[in-house]
Amino acid sequence: MEQQITQIRSIISDSIETKQRVLADEGMVRLTLDVAQLCADTFRHDRKVFFCGNGGSAADAQHLAAEFSGRFYFDRDPLFSEALHVNTSYITAVANDYSYEQIYSRLVKAKVRTGDVLIGLSTSGNSMNIVKAFEQCRIQGGITVGMTGETGGKMREVSDILINIPSTDTPRIQECHMLLGHAICQLVEEMLFERKA
Question: Residues 72, 189: contact at Cβ < 8 Å?
Fold first, then answer.
């Protein structure tokens, strides 16, 4: 039991250490503000913010889209935000009939318009379905925001804004994605709405 307790403490410590590196990175903090301002401006102009990811990052993408379209800290009007993977019939049909790499790019072609934002979460930055979605988003006149791990991977070249967490450890990267994602959601809510008494 003591070994497992020590392991849990080590996991928590590693998570805190990664977050401390993010906190100390002035550029990353400013990029997070840039993304919040971009999303707020997008919503102000009646445009949309889309999210995509795979596996745990898909869950995080859906979570963040729900924070925008539902509420974060207080009651206010909904914002149009959507995670691209939520229609399982579509995902399985396109993966079967075309390829898994095209599941997001086809939806981007159908949905994204000039000035819309696509936020892609990938710890490696090498998820080809997200890379292809970003390429299509740019063709459509959309803006791409990559949330990745340390290197940025292939998404580095197709991201208009890249937030690359300084880690190669998948769980620690995902934890920081959610931390900064929540910060973005809070800032956007405060930029767009007045909290009611």
Answer: yes
Taking the CA atoms of the chain, what radius of gyration do you get in angstroms? Answer: 17
Strand order in the sheet with 161-164: 81-83, 49-53, 117-121, 143-148, 161-164
Secondary structure, 3-state, the chain: CHHHHHHHHHHHHHHHHHHHHHHHCHHHHHHHHHHHHHHHHHHHCCCCEEEEECCHHHHHHHHHHHHHHCCCCCCCCCCCEEECCCCHHHHHHHHHHCCHHHHHHHHHHHHCCCCCEEEEECCCCCCHHHHHHHHHHHHCCCEEEEEECCCCHHHHHHCCEEEECCCCCHHHHHHHHHHHHHHHHHHHHHHHCCCCC
pLDDT digits (tens, 9 = 90+) for 60-88: 999 999 999 999 999 999 999 999 999 99
Q: What is the mean pLDDT of the chain?
A: 97
Amino acid letter, 137: C
Spatial separation of the C-alpha atoms in residues 49 and 51, rounded to whole Å: 7
Q: What is the biggest distance separating any 2 CA atoms in the chain, rounded to whole angstroms?
A: 56
Q: What is the pLDDT of residues 13-62, one digit of tens each?
A: 999 999 999 999 999 999 999 999 999 999 999 999 999 999 999 999 99
